[in-house]
Amino acid sequence: MDSSLPVQAYVPEIHPTGLIPFLLLLLGGIACLVVDAATGKEGSRRYLPWIAGGTLLASITCFFLRLVPGEVFLEDTFRADAFGQLASIIILASTFVMTTMGPSLVRRRNLPSGEFYTLILFASLGMTLLAISNELLTAFISLEVFALSLYVLVGIDRRSRKAAEACFKYFVLGAFASAFLVFGIAFLYGAAHTTFLTEMAEVFRQGYVESVGPEGAVTEIPVNTMYVFVGFAFMFVGICFKLSLAPFHMWAPDVYQGGNMPAVMVVATASKVAAFAFLVHLVEALSYWQGFASGAVYIVTAVAVVSMLWGNLAALVQTNFRRMMAFSSVAHSGYMTVGILVLVALPGLMSGAELEAGQLLIRQAVILYMAGYTVMNILAFGVAYYIGGGGHMAAYRGLVYRRPLPAAGMAIAMFSLVGIGFTPPTIGFMGKFYIFKEAVQVGFVGIAVIALLASVISAFYYLNLVVTMFMRAETKPAEAPLAGTPEAPVQVGGELLARVVLVTACVLIFVFGIFPQLFIGLGETLVNGAVR
Amino acid sequence: MPLLTLIIAIPAVLGLVACLLLPQRLVKYGALAIVLLDLALVIFAAGRFDWSGDYQREVAAFEHTVPSHFQMREYVPWIEPFRISWTVGVDHLSMLMILLTAAIGVFAVLCSWSSIKKREKEFYFFLLVLQTGIMGTFLAIDMFLFYIFWELMLIPLYFLIGIWGSKNRIFATMKFVLYTLAGSVLMLVALIWMYYTNGYYENGVFQQVKTYSFEVMAHTQGEAGPLGSFRGAIWPFLALFVAFAVKIPLFPLHTWLPDAHTEAPTAGSVILAGVLLKTGGYGIIRFCLPLFPDVAFALAPVCTWLAIIAIIYGAMTAIVQTDVKRLVAYSSVSHMGFVVLGIFSFNAQAMSGAILTMINHGISTSGLFLAVGMLYERTHTREMSNFGGLSRNLPIFAALTMVMVLSSAGLPGLNGFIGEFNVLLGSMSNVPIMIQAHENPAGFAAAMGMVEYTWFIAALAATGVILGAVYLLIMYQRTFFGKLDEARNGSLRDLVPREWGQLAVLSVAAVWIGLFPRPVLNAIQPATERALQSVAIGTPLAQWDEESVTTVDVQVEWADASGVSKKP
To answer: Most buried in the list A119, A319, A420, B440, measured by CB within 10 Å?
Structure first.
């Protein structure tokens, strides 16, 4: 990208194979629509899960076949480094779990299956593209694609008032966030005269924009600091909404409580992974701007600390499982933001190869955390969904006496969510260890201490659920609250696929918890092709 | 053969297998077989162990090669980019501790034999996982691995108290978990911090040595690295110390203990008192002293005072308890105070007394909890007022409990006396160390007015022994002597062989250590010397050449022999 030459040889970098997994998702979505129209209600219920699930698996396979190049492609629009590819795989895995839950949900709540599966695939498309996007407008459009799909998915159960409420809140606040995002993009474009993140990083590194005049005269326009900060602040706020970082988390409890469980699971996991992956790429580009850290550190620290503390403190007093998980996800986003904080501060401390190595370590830490967070949430929501527990704590009382294995799975998820201190060989612990290790290295010892003490607070409510499941006597069915209402617990379970998914999640929690480098090595393998 | 790895892994792995394969009623036999196998392995390891105390050889930990005194060392790289490895090894201190752990593990299974009736599989599984966690804690050399095992001990105990505990169990288990968790999360930050700041100055240039290995850190830290200075070391020291102090438990961090002990099932109490509390003392001797000698010196007066408070406060609180189990729990606070006092007196006598007290407390307090458990199983109450005159129809029980009570009270001729007497004698003669602390720039010692008053400290601690006799004898009297006022206590059956067998073994151990303490003290001796070599004379381990080792030996001998205190 040497713009000093007046006439540049145009070499398109398309890497067409890189688009295959994403085109598959698009085609799969369209196929779902067509099949839904062609077959009746029963037919679509029968075939669509297979189409959607198959598409998602095929798309994941494309990553493993290394069809996606480990660099920028499609004329710099996408950057599928190890981080982005792993994020995509996590997203696809999460939506795949949602499709496995689909049939029982569709049957139980009598949902339109055509829309359901199509939207899952479109949401996956948007999220994966956001995770690897290197261009701000592409990122924005991807974000809108998945956000709109998820708004609908959350509220797809039209007969439920709570779902309507959740959908509406999610939509209104999401639209609000999108406005912030676009506004921030405009400012960043004003500062850097480009929307490509890699070019932006180059501009910020040299500190001026080269503008080529009509006669080939090159003028150097200095970067406007104000624009950078305002642009970042607005974009960050927009992304904070998506990540449900305090104080922009207000939608989360209601959406988690009102939406159907599979959609909530995807909102909690995949959508956050996508937004977070984009945030990492964005901050990495911006952090090259000299003096960026001096301002951004405060914003990011404030958001991270407030999220960790407020999320955990608010979760303490929740009496509803779903609301508790919502606040817990606020706190977990806060922990991950500590990784962003390190990323912001890193260029001020080192440079050159050392900086790149440092950024690589942070990306690895964040992706490990996100993988862990996703697996733990899939397990928690999955168990809650399959035992028909829903939100009411009463449904979990003495669960171990009725359903010992789901109870054990939920306990593993809870222990792993506590993460630090309590449950060493789990992925929740390793993710936190990786992130806080980097934080301590660059000198954010105070933040690490706050994060760990916040984790201790979180131990209380996660363990409270374990206490409820393991140490309290079972309620008799007659005493179960809300019996006969639409919110009443319904047992779903017994499906082979569900068991496979949940057992896999359990196994992954321990495998990646004991051998975290396996997961990170996987990313390297996907990109470099070198088996480590 | 990876002997130590087997010792660590066997309880949890075979426990899982046994719980999956065996039917409910056979699980306890499986558990017993597993703990006996583990005990056999530990004894086998003890047989192969070089007890002489001059074992040393070059070992590798990632890119570093350092001399190490750990035997049967196993080293497998684990998370290589961060130099985390599965490094386990055993020295005198940890060998004694794993012997204690394996033995107490057998008692824990035996005492649950008839008292645990619901969900036996899960019970024995958690019990065995707990044993794995404790073994790993005592054997890990890699500090990250140590942290992992340290935390692994929590989960099984959380379930043991929470599911099989008595009435107030949920409150107790949450309190226990949150206390220990809050205490130990900071340890992780400290370990990471040490990983990045560890190093030494060579020709004025700072050489960073990133490592989680205890051996490497102890040898490379030197006197001039950031961790060698007082300012650099105080925070990591405090973070580690608080984590250990919660486990010990040292006043004022002890309040979880009475609740946890009281509500736990007998096996939980036995392991908690017998072994788990020792991990705290072990951690201080293993990590706090060698890695941060200067800070340990400077804070010694503070720790000493806290220990004194724990001894007296624990004892006085025990006197007023009406719940037998709670009384024994508070007696633990008091006894573990002696351990801290002994450690922070920094001389050979007190240190060996502290280590011996850890073992003694493991024997006698486990015995007391076993006795309380047997009593509870018969009467379903722990209130002292419900007992009285039990010695009439429970003569064997009364006799064996008597041995445990007297051992705990420190009667000469029984084990408790040897340990506590050594601690008292040592703390009386720790003047030179206190003078050194006085000369320390931190100057805490002067502020505390310690130098002139070491006899006063020993005198205060001795009060704890007297108070110990008071509460233990009161408890014994109210339980076993006097009139048999409760009619239903008249029909209690005496101990079955499984029960009196446990108490008898512990009694024999108590009498044996009490009458012939030499073998045990000989085994403790190298551990004591090593702990003091690394700290007492302020010699960093990095300078462990022949010369300094000899001078250290001379001084240790001097400290050992001095009845009268004088300046070095």
So the answer is: A420
d(CA A7, CA B544): 70
Beta-carbon neighbour count of residue A14 at 10 Å?
A: 13
Q: What is the number of structural domains in chain A?
A: 1
3-state DSSP of A199-220 = HHHHHHHHCEEEEECCCCCEEE
Chain B residue whose CA is closest to A438:
B192
Cβ–Cβ gap B148/A459 under 8 Å = no
- Asked whether residue A400 is domain-assigned, the answer is yes
Residue A360: alpha-carbon gap to chain centroid: 19
Q: State the Cα–Cα distance between residues A19 and B398, nearest whole angstrom.
A: 81
Residues B234, B226: Cα–Cα separation, whole Å: 11
- CA–CA dist B488, A114 (Å, integer): 73
Contact B170 A472 (CB under 8 A): yes
What are the sequence ranges of the domains in chain B? 292-538
In a domain, A360, yes or no: yes
Q: Do B181 and A422 touch (CB under 8 A)?
A: yes
User: Is the residue at A426 inside a domain?
Assistant: yes
Measured CA angle at B56 (ends B51, B60), to 5 deg: 130
DSSP string, B51-90: TTS---EEEEETTEEEEE--EEEEEEEEEGGGTEEEEEEE
Q: Is A384 inside a domain boundary? A: yes
**B174–A467 C-beta distance less than 8 A:** yes
Question: Which of A424, A437, A452 minimises the CB distance to B186?
Answer: A452
A422/B177 CB distance under 8 A? yes
Distance of CA B469 to the CA centre of its chain: 22
Task: Please tell me which residue of chain B has the smallest CA distance to A461.
Answer: B174
- Whether B208 has its CB under 8 Å from any CB of chain A: the answer is no
In chain A, which residues have their Cβ closer than 8 Å to the Cβ of B193?
A: 440, 445
- Which residue among A423, A449, A456 sits closest to B178, beta carbon to beta carbon? A456
Shortest CB distance from A421 goes to which of B81, B158, B184? B184
| B chain contacts of residue A453, beta-carbon cutoff 8 Å | 182, 185
| Residue contacts between A and B (CB atoms, under 8 Å) | 79
Q: B159 vs A455: CB contact, 8 Å cut-off? A: no
Contacts of B223 (CB under 8 A, 6+ apart): B540, B542, B543
Q: What is the pLDDT tens value at each position of chain B, 568 positions in all?
A: 788 999 999 998 998 898 888 888 888 888 999 999 999 999 999 998 888 877 888 888 888 888 888 888 888 888 888 888 899 999 889 999 999 999 999 998 988 888 888 888 888 999 999 999 999 999 999 999 999 999 888 888 888 898 888 888 888 888 888 888 888 888 888 888 888 888 777 777 777 788 888 888 877 765 555 666 677 788 888 999 999 999 888 888 888 998 888 888 888 889 988 899 999 999 999 888 888 877 887 787 788 888 889 999 999 999 998 888 889 899 999 999 999 988 888 778 888 889 999 999 999 999 999 988 888 888 888 888 788 777 778 888 888 888 889 888 888 888 888 888 888 888 776 555 555 554 554 444 444 545 556 677 788 888 888 888 888 888 888 888 877 776 777 777 777 888 888 888 989 998 898 888 888 888 888 888 888 776 644 433 333 333 333 333 333 333 333 333 333 3
Of B496, B505, B521, nearest to B421 by C-alpha is B521
**Range(s) of the domain holding residue A339:** 291-476+489-532
Query: Is residue A425 within 8 angstroms of chain B, CB to CB?
Result: yes
* Closest to B177 (Cα-Cα) out of A376, A464, A331, A469: A464
